[in-house]
Amino acid sequence: MPETSPLPDDAALTAESRPRDGQRFSPSAEFRASAVASADLYAEAAADRLEFWADQSRSLLHWHRPFTEVLDWSKPPFARWFADGELNVAYNCLDRHVLAGNGDRIALIWEGEPGDVRRISYAELTAEVKRAANLLTSLGIGQGDRVAIYLPMIPEAIVAMLAVARIGATHSVIFGGFSAESLRSRIDDAAAKLVITADGGWRKGRISPLKPAVDAALAGEPTTVEKVLVVRRAWPDDQELEWTAGRDLWWHDEIALMDADHVAKSFDAENPLFILYTSGTTGKPKGILHTSGGYLTHTAFTHRSVFDLHPESDVYWCTADIGWITGHSYVVYGPLANGATQLIYEGTPDTPHGGRWWELIQKHAVSILYTAPTAIRSFMKSGREIPQSFDLSSLRLLGSVGEPINPEAWLWYREVIGGGTPIVDTWWQTETGGIMISALPGVTETKPGAAQVPIPGISVAVLTDKGKKVGKGESGLLAVTQPWPGMLRGIWGDPDRFVETYWSKFAKVENGPLYFAGDGARRDEDGDIWLLGRVDDVMNVSGHRLSTAEIESALVAHPWVAEAAVVGANDETTGQAVVAFVIIRSRHSDAAAEPGAADQLRSHVASTIGPIARPRQVFLVSELPKTRSGKIMRRLLRDVAEGRAVGDTTTLADATVMQAIGDKLADKA
Ligand code: 6R9
């Protein structure tokens, strides 16, 4: 059937081509004919959810010791999946593909930002991970230890993660864009013994150093870190780097001494695989804990069925950095467990030119692309001529993740990038481990802007504040109503916060406790789910989660700042943007009156947390709107930040405050 009318030839959509109500796309007969997923999956999961996941796990993974129990939910919300089984996560991602005769298949096609390319087969990747596993063991790392990984998007990042997994230790990957301070707090929270980093990586046409941030993080107070392994990526041999003798080791020197033989031992299904820090509603990031057997089952199943993976012919590309959950689940564990061939790119989309991504797709014949709405919107802005000057005909499936995708961006993505290919909009979180709500390509009819239906084996509900299901056409809070294999097993070192954050909102409802996701959602007339964004004080900037409290505490740590309030304001490109309102201490009012003062505060946030947290705007104000109980009314600040008339101010302790803020901003304009 014809799928849509063609869009006009300008960059953004014009009024005539705006998404139409009720617009939907059926899978083509051709796609359906060779699709991995089928409608049977829904039926099987509905018939027996636990048996469904057990079947997936047995067929997708190699268990050294088969499990006999699927789920232990005797102490909710602390779940155990496949708990009496044993497996090795790295063996599942590597050795078994080699043993099955696929050692020559390319696992990673890596391209650096300057254009250097490495093609690494499954046999080569396995050998490298074995060497790295031997190296970690020789440094005294074993099961129960944590290893911090702070690397650019280079193959060694994946080798390091898999080597940690192979020896049963636990990794904590920290995004390379985070500051020394953020790195230190994560290292301390997890009590990491080893840090794996690089001299630097390539970003925006130049070298972005990493090792100095590690040095800064480890300076001062004693740390748990014993050794720092440094991958050489950025500079040639003669570059002088700060070096701490006895602590710092070159990765390439050490790896060269290691044997490429290493027998993968099996570990319990619930052995901790990784901790990944994510922003919550308080200033302190949460260390989300994931374990092995359930997580790998969930990521392998969803990667295969949601991305319709044909490992012998597809070239898959997920553009996420390994510092985020999407990089963990859909660059490392899901794809490698499934024996996929994938592209990894080190750099930014606009270096050295705005068509870099499309050039990569053309050059490496990428067939499946998984990226974020913020990227799509920024490409829309620069115009369709750029992607249209490349051959993108290898693409056959597109994915979206990280934030709600507006129908205009969905349609543009489908037409201009995909030439009419299906799109899967995948809703999930760091906490869920893997995709929870998404169409299955070849099976589900899709609607621009809707994430649609839970995947087979996952049960969700849209609830009122009191835990009652909303009707069709109504909005409410998204909850997951049954435990699932990839679910977080806790917050590192803080079981009470785990229970409080996710399981207390719907603790007392029937069949509870239910998992509260922190997102608003709407069910349409067909029962399909549309995500509406966060309902808590978590912002979503370019698909990255940032907490208002964390940025506020960075601001008040600056000597000028007496008080700060941060809101997420709508932004055309990044979804939301950080906007801060700051009260300056009177003794610093002169310094703060200088031109560029607000920019200094913006840079201060960027250097404390990382460039992604840099506020779009900092407004210097004399008061903040508060309720009589002293709570900052962020809703009113959001009105100001989004340039709207300020809403209801009747609950303010001092009704004149908003007028004063308005006047102050008008002065500046
Ligand atoms: C995978 C990831 C999770 C939050 C989540 C939600 C938002 C993610 C989405 C989406 C609408 C989608 N989110 N995917 N909102 N549609 N397809 O992004 O994890 O970084 O933990 O963020 O992102 O608000 O709660 P994470």
Element layout with pairings:
Blueprint: H1 29-33, H2 40-47, H3 49-60, E1 71-75, E2 78-81, E3 86-87, H4 89-93, H5 95-102, E4 106-111, E5 117-121, H6 122-138, E6 146-150, H7 155-166, E7 170-173, H8 180-190, E8 194-198, E9 200-203, E10 206-209, H9 211-218, E11 227-231, E12 248-250, H10 251-256, E13 267-268, E14 272-278, E15 286-291, H11 293-306, E16 316-318, H12 325-337, E17 342-345, H13 356-364, E18 368-371, H14 373-382, H15 385-388, E19 397-401, H16 407-417, E20 423-426, E21 460-463, E22 475-480, E23 490-491, H17 495-503, E24 515-523, E25 529-534, E26 538-541, E27 544-547, H18 548-556, E28 561-571, E29 575-584, H19 589-593, H20 597-608, E30 617-621, H21 634-641, H22 657-668
Parallel strand pairs: 4-17, 6-7, 6-8, 7-14, 8-11, 11-12, 16-17, 16-18, 18-19, 19-20, 29-30
Antiparallel strand pairs: 1-2, 3-13, 4-5, 9-10, 14-15, 15-23, 21-22, 22-24, 24-25, 26-27, 28-29
Helix pairs in contact: 2-3, 3-11, 6-7, 8-9, 11-12, 14-16
Bound molecules: ligand 6R9.
Summarize the structure.
The chain is α/β, with parallel strands linked by helices and 669 residues long.
